[in-house]
Amino acid sequence: MENKICLIAPYSELAELAEQIQQEIGFRFSVRVGMLEDGLKQALAACQAGAQVIISRGGTAAIIRKHVNIPILEAKVTSHDLLRVIAPYRNQKKTLGVIGYESIVHGCRRTCELLTIAMEEIIISNDFNEDVDWLAVQNKAQNLVSAHGIKNIIGDTLIASKLTFKNVNVHLITSGKEALLETIDEARHIVQVREEERAVAERFKTVINIVREGIIAVDEHEQITVINPAAEAIFNLTADDILGQPIKNFIDHFHIGRILKSGRAEMNQVQKISRGYILSNQIPIQVDGEAKGVVATFQEIKKIQDAEQSIRQNLYTQGFVTKYRFNHFITSDPSAEQMIHLARNYAKANATVLIQGESGTGKEILAQSIHSDSRRANGPFVAINCAALPPQLLESELFGYVEGAFTGAKKGGKPGLFELAHKGTIFLDEVGDIDSVLQGRLLRVLQEKQVMRIGSDAIIPVDIRIIAATNRHLNELVTEGRFRMDLYYRLNVLNLRTIPLRERNHDIMLLAAYFLKEFAAEYGCCPENLPAEMMDRLTQHHWPGNVRELKNVIERFAVQTGSKQPSSSTTKFILEDLSLNSEPLPATQESFLTGNLQEIKRKAILTILAEEEYNKTRTAKRLGIDRATIDRLLERPKLKP
Q1: Quick one: CA dihedral 222, 226, 229, 230, positive or negative?
Q2: Does residue 228 have a pLDDT over 50?
Q3: Could you give the CA distance from residue 308 to residue 536 in angstroms, rounded to a whole number?
Q4: Cα-Cα-Cα-Cα dihedral of 58, 60, 65, 67, to 10°?
Q5: Is residue 66 part of a domain?
Q6: Domain that holds residue 11
């Protein structure tokens, strides 16, 4: 720190005192001797040598302060210093002369009053102007000496260097050891604070320089105070050319004045620049509730799109993340709401969950929601459809394999999905279609939480939660010997049954309105409401494909209708298409009469319902029953837990 603090001593005694203090406190700083203009030259040389704080005295300190931008500390004259100079005159009858700046004269006046010493004074302007008329001051001093018979004058080194007297003793007021020590301590503190501030500034500079977003900050006068390299590249600017300049001279895409006036941020604004489009956020800098500047961040939309594509390739395409949560369920049905409440409770546990229900009822959405709301939410979510792959391929996908395990095995082997789901959740969709051999291997994973790659004898421990789903009655498959009973009970720890759409009659129009709004946003625009005849048909339809089927119907309607009002022919076409997608009717009398009495009644109702163009009122009248009986007989047998 020796070159960071420099003492410019106007007189040699102060330099000698500084050397003595350095020896006593064991702290080194540079010392230079020079008064007034010579002191300024020494100060400029010290700055070039790396000085961060300069210490001096009186007029010399004042001159340096005018020409140097680093902190200038003045070694003050203390009351002890004044007392040391004035006290020897307390027993003399002669008037004491005091010449100096106001601060010095004021201190001398109070000291003389305490010691009852007569005193006459000349005050030099406090602005420390180098152009002081010293000749005028000399004449005033001579008149003062003559008028009062003054034999002793006190003042600082500036007075001694500028004025001359005959037959008058001039005594200098010097800074004592205590004052200089205090000033040195203050200088050390300033250096420490400045270095800490510089470290913070460097960290801040490093942060804004390495981020990929462009950053520009302006003050309340809309002048640029910060710009990072990313922003320089986006706008083809150079910091040296624009810092301190009005932002409107270089960039006219932003509403800095409006933000400063309103104090409100403007987020996610898409704007066009010479090299493409950018996404900007402009946030006011609030100080005591008042906007004192604006920070704007920018991202090139192409880079955002590239990053999103990379994420999709590395994560989404592998199925390792979720996109659904419980709030994606749209329902007003009490049974469905109870199911969701139960699923939320299951999410807090770590046990295996078995989700049973028909196709299109949201089993995977439910599985993703459970994972997203669980303690494993930060881990991977790995999904696989067990019915989509042949047994051998499914086994290699689930358990992985080592190099050379079979013909076509990937060099270096491949980890299985159980390994990739470590610390997360694996979702086994259509688990009821797994063959018996693979069921045994799956049972071991559930029991031991261990996997073994195909062709390997190494055991790999895994920390996973299994969520399984099926649209089949697993308990019936167990009875038929097509599904292992021990595996069934391992899977069926926590059980959920999804509700088919036909049992959520009030949700049909709720979901239809939601999908219509969703497709309106996707395809530009379409009617806000469905035609009345279509709404009636939707509520009467059996919905074998459940919510998935309903969504497909609404999408067809949105695509075929476009921005126009739906015509009767379009509506009729969609309704005919809806009828064609209903449950197929029995083709022969033999197939019609198969099954129990409940199933035969159901087939009969479906036959008449089709003949009556799915009008339940006419169907009920023709059969001599009410609509409620039709709804009851059309219900499928509920899945057993």
Answers
A1: negative
A2: yes
A3: 42
A4: 160
A5: yes
A6: 5-76+179-190
- Max CA separation in the chain (angstroms): 146
> pTM here?
0.47
Q: Please give the C-alpha separations between residue 180 and each of 56, 77, 175, 207, 461, in angstroms, as whole numbers.
A: 10, 9, 7, 40, 71
Of 497, 513, 540, which residue sits at a domain end?
Answer: 497
- Residue 302 in 3-state DSSP? helix
Whether 343 contacts 496, CB under 8 Å: yes
Please give the structure tokens belonging to residue 279: 């996404």
Q: Which comes out higher in pLDDT, residue 314 or 404?
A: 404
Residue 180 has pLDDT above 60, yes or no: yes
**Which residues lie closer than 8 Å to 338 by C-beta, 6 or more apart?**
none
Rounded Cα gap, residues 99 and 43, in angstroms: 26
What are the φ and ψ backbone dihedral angles of 543, each rounded to 5 degrees?
A: 55, 65
- Residue-wise burial string across 462-498, b where 16 or more C-beta atoms lie within 10 A, e elsewhere: bebbbbbbbbbbbbebbeeeebbeebbebbbebbbbb
- Show the tokens assigned to 568: 């009767």
CB count within 10 Å of CB 63 equals: 22
Taking a C-beta distance cutoff of 8 angstroms, is the pair 208, 229 a contact? Answer: no
Quick check: is 624 in a domain? yes
**Among residues 237, 233, 253, which one has the least CA distance to residue 245?**
237
- Bridge partners (DSSP) of residue 400 are 415
| Residue 432 belongs to domain with CATH number | 3.40.50.300
Q: How far apart are CA 562 and CA 109, in angstroms?
A: 95
Residue pLDDT, tens place only, 376-391? 998 889 999 988 888 8
Amino acid code (one letter) for 139? N
Strands (E), 102-254: 119-124, 152-155, 169-172, 214-219, 224-227
φ/ψ (deg, to 5) at 574: -65, -40
Helices (H), strands (E): how many in the chain?
27, 22
CB 168 within 8 A of CB 152: yes
